[in-house]
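Lecture 7 notes: from sequence to structure.

We start with a single chain of 502 residues. Read the sequence below before looking at the structure.
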Amino acid sequence: MRPAPENSARGRAGSRGGLCLSRPAPGVDYLPVFLRLHSRPVVVVGGGAVALRKVNWLRKAGARVSVVAPSLHPQLAQQAARGELTHLAAPFAPSHLAEAAAVVAATADRATNSAVSLAAHERNLPVNVVDDAALSSFIFPAIIDRSPILVAVSSAGNAPVLARRIRAQIEALLPERLGELARFLGARRAAIARTLGALARRAFWERLVAGPVASAVLRGDEAAAERALAREVLTSQAAGARGSGGSAPGEVYLIGAGPGDADLLTLRALQLLQQADVILYDRLVGAGVLERARRDAECIFVGKGSGEHGEQQRINELLVSLARAGKRVARLKGGDPLVFGRGGEELEALATHDIACTVVPGITAALGAAAAAALPLTHRRLATSVTLVTGHQLDAPLPDWRFFADPRHTVVFYMAVAQLAGIVARLRAAGAAASHPAALIERATLPQQRIVRGSLANIAALAAEQRIEPPALLIVGDVAAFAAGAVPDGLSASLAAAAALA
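Now the structure, written as tokens:
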């Protein structure tokens, strides 16, 4: 505990504690406030594109907008024609502000803007002159709209571009359905106040906004949110009866980490990584991705090697035990959790124990590798279908392999390096030509990425020669020879014929 500063105010014996003040806080140029304008008259002077942006925000806030301008932007004219605003086709006059609650000047003429500002100040009306802080008594901030949640960012007019950049960075952290969560909680405040005592309510609400209830609302599953809410209420009531804090239920986030590059994480993945207490990650999740997680989160490596069949059961048990202990657990998997990631098995284990789970898709390795190598998996002239196959399962019947051997059908083999010779042999046995294009992409999207192109005749030898190692994908089919803007050598006969007819 820090000692109070010597110049702090000392309370009298028996008096209640107050604020401990040392020196005044630095001043601010503007006081951030939110102005309720529903059904209030607001005057906008100017009828161009800038005025349109201001009018749209004012109308969104429910204001009754009048636009003073000789002519209007086409969209403003359409709004006026629909009766959504009033158009006063005249030069500005101070009398236009007679009933206004607020004023915006958005013309390109400084003299007009100055006249609007003067008239507003004489009437003690809040006024904004666009891009002129000196003439304004209020400014429009950069706004993040998750109504009823609103976040405003301002540079006090000094650096609007910087304010917009900060807004974009904050916006990336806020889920799109945040407003729905606020409405869900607000609709239940009165009922919770009747159900729980004052001391229990704060901890209850804190658990709700960072637990299974919030996760369910944010993914659009209100029924699951209601079930989770009922469990939270029962937990709080039981804890109150015991006189303890209780153990709130935890949850699991099944997150796809993408193909490797941390910048390819989805916004939702970033949001949940920032609130997870524990992260279970596999060997395909790089350090760059883990760097995006909450700093104090516990990271547990649960990567499986080839042949470790019992390891998945241990992971399932760990997920269940951590969630039962009230933890928010992120299960972080390379690529997409439901594409060769055994995410389905983990979903089954969690459902068996009635543990809430949110699935966040990731860019699966096939899509990431193809994009990184500029190989289209489908192309109007080259391929009309694509199949994702695990290289560990080579015992499919021959008819399936005849389908895979069609050069106009793209096949992406995951975990292919160790089985490369067997894959090539099966494709050749199914009728694929020796010239059938093939490409290996190692460590896709990462700085160490390597691409080896060839055909079924030489791809295994090229891989051995260049010492290609996992993780790597094998893409076969005519698209594997694709080069934008050029017809590459070694195309299959079908591709050459298609190119000749194009």
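The CA atoms of residues 431 and 446 lie 35 Å apart. Keep this in mind for problem set 3.
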